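A brief tutorial aside. Many learners find it easier to grasp structure tokens once they have seen a single protein encoded end to end. The record that follows does exactly this for NAD(P)H-binding protein. Read the sequence first, then the structure, and try to relate runs of similar tokens to stretches of the chain.
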Amino acid sequence: MGKTAIVLGATGLTGSHLVKSLLTNSDYSRIVLFSRSTCGIQHAKITEYLIDLFDLESYKTLFKADVVFCCIGTTKSKTPDKTIYHKVDYGIPVAAANLCVQNSINRFICISALGADAKSNVFYNRTKGEMEAVVLSLNIENTYMLQPSLITGGREEFRLGEYIGKIVMRITAPFFIGKLKNYKPIESKSIALAMLWLAENTYKLQCIPSKEIKEIAIKYDRNRA
């Protein structure tokens, strides 16, 4: 019997890459999706629950797996209300991590953000940092927070700020050396592959910066070749 993976945020850019990779990974026989809208994929491996993610705790009996992947995240343009924004980027990952504790799931892999800092004056960074702090305090045996820089890939919706950011990043990328490598844009597919590697291995850090996410993704690709 293969492993079971839970994916939160399967309809997003990175989450969709992750689901597709899980479908081709023979180690996993069941993929459980908790979403507000369908991912649109019909497959024998997939069990999809369309729910209110703000009420995730009500689905405790269904929340059982070997690993939980949390790809939840929003933006200021999509969610200008800070209260709702906090419920998405903080509330959902924390609720999922608590369910991992309650159901003895010992591997939780979550997308955070570069610059996450619970003491930051920037609301976005502070929200991510607070989420990281609470989740890590739960002491789930294998917890990893991925901290990507600007995430690139083909999105369905157009984001002007992100589009401009990508252009600027491409022009300035050659100058990002040393510690600045963490600020280079990163492909959503690389994040998904790194998450899969972390689902099978242990890593030296719990909070993993963008540069190292890319290195882990390359390692996963090499091992699967």
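Self-check: The helical segments are 13-23, 82-102, 123-137, 160-172, 188-198, 210-224. If you spotted this yourself, you are ready for the next section.
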